[in-house]
Amino acid sequence: MYQRKIPIDYECGLSVAMEVVGSKWKFCLLDEISKGIKRPRDLVNAINGITKRVLQKQLSELELHGLLSKTIYPEVPLRVEYFLTPSGESLLPLISAVDQWGMGFASQLKVILEGKDSEI
Amino acid sequence: MYQRKIPIDYECGLSVAMEVVGSKWKFCLLDEISKGIKRPRDLVNAINGITKRVLQKQLSELELHGLLSKTIYPEVPLRVEYFLTPSGESLLPLISAVDQWGMGFASQLKVILEGKDSEI
DNA sequence: AAGCATGGTGAATAATTTATCACCAGATGA
DNA sequence: TCATCTGGTGATAAATTATTCACCATGCTT
């Protein structure tokens, strides 16, 4: 992280939500973890396009913000599992709703941006 | 806009939603417009921190994506009003939910980032 | 003519986020 | 010893987004 030029407005729910969840992979990460994929290695494999480093960073931010927690099992090879905190779980209905909305909007957006109908 | 390096995944609702709504001011803008603030000048005044240029850009993106529409009244001085399309309106419950969640999470985030309780 | 209000745009830059690359460490098996 | 698996980090580059600044135009008022 770094020092933001414009600080978070704690009075504004949208500002707060954007701070903790408004980045490229976070919704996706929370979604996958809620589905049972908990290990970093598995998440890298499950999520198309994310890299190890980026995953680590976003996981650690989610952990810092209290949406994720992790457990380290002293096995060999080392096993680490991330899981949702209550705050993280409280976000699931929202993530689901956003996903639903996006699915419904996809064909419209495709027409707008590419000028053709989708076959979905 | 520009040509994205990584294209939108139309199969993924989260990806689609992030594309049209995942930027700093869009939730806020849709929220204000739904509350009846429709003119660019009024939006600049209503939203703390946004500038004229940024407002114009985000409004035009929302318009391009089909969440907003605008009407030009040939008055003097010129009057322009933006309003929500049905797609834009379908987003309102979600924005409200995100805002609610953020409000509920604010005090926790404040403790985490600043180490002190809020007085809200 | 000058100043103001409206809505708008292009170019350049700053700020921020994401990605790439090269590493480290522990323990295991070949 | 060397390669492999795991999870992890620092430095840097690239991509993306947001902001600043300087403009344009119209038609009013002074």
UniProtKB/TrEMBL annotation, chains A, B:
Leader sequence range is none
Which UniProt keyword terms apply here?
DNA-binding, Transcription, Transcription regulation
Superkingdom of origin organism: Bacteria
Span of domain HTH hxlR-type? 12-110
InterPro entries, per database record: HTH_HxlR, WH-like_DNA-bd_sf, WH_DNA-bd_sf
| GO molecular function terms noted in the UniProt entry | DNA binding
Q: Where are the transmembrane segments?
A: none
Q: Which PANTHER family match?
A: TRANSCRIPTIONAL REGULATOR, MARR FAMILY
Q: What is this protein's record name?
A: DNA-binding HxlR family transcriptional regulator
State the organism named in the record: Pedobacter cryoconitis
